[in-house]
């Protein structure tokens, strides 16, 4: 077993709990059956030169595995998925399709979702945010509708669960302060299906545990 360490925040405000991106890594590790240690960082450590050498932007997650240092949640999940049949089919076509969905989650859906979340969670009262919000909502709805059209009657984005579903679910969760996912029943059912996985439940519990200690 490799020695794996995941860097996460020891404390975040309640609105961010359950959303911080170390959850993606913890979930991937749980699906892959890999154990890890957590390194909880605070503001001072986040700004330190030592941490910047691990995560150049001072963000979480960061990941260490037997001397390998990685950052960016998508890259870390891909790294884990490449060695786990539970996250990535072993055939080249299946792998390519799963990778496409990983990028779709992070590069096509998340930018719209994040843009709305920043308005709602960080700048709700500012005039520019109120002016911008309707078009941000419209952009999110357009993406979610197309995602739901693709899903149709499927349980997952492809013919089985992959790391693409893992990342997509964590992106959809960012909208939990709205009804935008719930308004599309197939998408809501998809999110709940993915979140019902025991590996997600384990990862979420491990992600939340430090916040209870440092409430
Ligand atoms: N693209 C990065 C984004 C990481 C990110 O935004 N991390 C947030 C927590 S979810 C963070 O560390 N924020 C504090 C900061 O940016 O200073 C990834 O997916 O790993």
Distance between the termini: 33 Å
CATH architectural grouping of the largest domain? Up-down Bundle
Mean pLDDT: 97
For the largest sheet, list the strands in their spatial order.
2-1-3-4
- Say what oligomer this is: single chain
Largest sheet: 4 strands, mixed
Percentage beta strand: 5-15%
Alpha-beta content class: alpha+beta
Poorly predicted regions: none
Give me the count of strands: 4
Along the chain, the helix and strand elements come as EHEHHEEHHHHHH
Number of helices: 9
Q: In the CATH scheme, what's the topology name of the largest domain? A: Glutathione S-transferase Yfyf (Class Pi), Chain A, domain 2
Bound molecules: glutathione
The total domain count is: 2
Gyration radius over CA: 17 Å
Global outline = globular
């Amino acid at each position: 077993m490799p020695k794996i360490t995941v860097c996460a925040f020891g404390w975040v405000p309640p609105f961010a709990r359950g959303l911080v991106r170390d959850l993606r890594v913890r979930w991937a590790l749980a699906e892959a059956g890999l154990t890890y240690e957590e390194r909880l960082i605070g503001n001072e450590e986040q700004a330190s030169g030592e941490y910047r050498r691990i995560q150049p932007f001072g963000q979480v997650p960061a990941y260490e595995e037997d001397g390998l240092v990685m950052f960016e949640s998508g890259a870390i999940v891909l790294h884990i998925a490449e060695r786990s049949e539970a996250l990535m089919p072993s055939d080249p076509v299946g792998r390519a399709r799963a990778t496409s969905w990983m990028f779709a989650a992070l590069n096509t859906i998340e930018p719209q979702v994040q843009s709305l979340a920043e308005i709602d969670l960080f700048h709700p009262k500012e005039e520019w945010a109120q002016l911008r919000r309707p078009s941000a909502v419209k952009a999110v709805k357009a993406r979610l509708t197309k995602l739901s059209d693709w899903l149709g009657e499927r349980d997952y984005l492809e013919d089985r669960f992959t790391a693409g579903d893992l990342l997509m679910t964590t992106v959809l969760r960012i909208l939990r302060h709205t009804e935008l996912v719930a308004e599309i029943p197939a998408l809501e059912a998809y999110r709940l299906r993915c979140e019902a996985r025991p590996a997600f439940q384990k990862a979420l519990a491990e992600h939340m545990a430090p916040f209870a200690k440092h409430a």
